[in-house]
Design goal:
Blueprint lengths: L1 H26 L13 E5 L4 E4 L8 E5 L5 E8 L2 E5 L5 E5 L3 E2 L3 E4 L7 E5 L8 E6 L3 E8 L2 E6 L2 E6 L3 E2 L9
Antiparallel strand pairs: 1-4, 1-7, 2-3, 4-5, 5-6, 8-11, 8-14, 9-10, 11-12, 12-13
Protein name: Aspartyl-trna synthetase
Keywords: Signal
């Protein structure tokens, strides 16, 4: 039975990888996916307990569990009601679609863990600094335009340079 399940998993994985490669390539030309939404795209985790599986079925083993709701993940492929996601550390796995939210969040990224990212009162480096955020701080993205994002979080609200966030694309406009 274990050998049969392994073979079935390999067949499903091969089909999914083939479909994902086709979908990923087509996404540059338009939103062609199981959901009709563009791939890749960022979403967030809806729950504080999200199983990440090795493949797109409940028969696949749980590879790990996310334990913080709101974390941003990037959808890199779709297979029926399953989404292959990648996190800010590059780990990838499959998550059932209902465990994901369209709410936009991001984490602060820095070249050095000791460095702090300035959060400004407005979208300008000449604006007063409202706070300084550590790498890994989770933010809710309210909007992004022209290289700046307005973010809010636990005890802060302000503007940060878009390049300092993982969870939004470099030139993406978020309303």
């Amino acid at each position: 039975m274990a050998v049969k399940r392994f073979v079935v998993s390999l067949v499903v994985a091969s089909a999914v990888l083939g479909a994902a490669a086709t979908v990923g390539h087509a996404a540059k030309d338009g939103p062609i996916s199981a959901s009709g939404l563009p791939i890749p795209r960022y979403v967030s985790l809806k729950s504080d307990h999200v199983n990440v599986r090795a493949g797109p079925t409940k028969d696949n083993d749980v590879a790990w569990v996310y334990t913080r709701s709101g974390l941003p993940v990037e959808i890199t492929a779709e297979y029926e009601n399953w989404r292959r996601v990648r996190d800010s550390e590059g780990a990838e796995g499959w998550v059932y679609h209902s465990l994901l939210s369209g709410r936009r969040t991001a984490v602060v990224t820095m070249k050095s863990k000791d460095e702090l990212a300035p959060l400004y009162d407005s979208a300008s480096v000449t604006s007063p600094v409202a706070a300084r955020l550590q790498a890994g701080v989770l933010t809710q993205v309210k909007r992004c335009a022209q290289g700046w994002c307005r973010v809010i979080g636990n005890g802060f609200d302000g503007w940060i340079q878009q390049e300092r966030l993982w969870g939004v694309y470099a030139d993406e406009k978020v309303d």
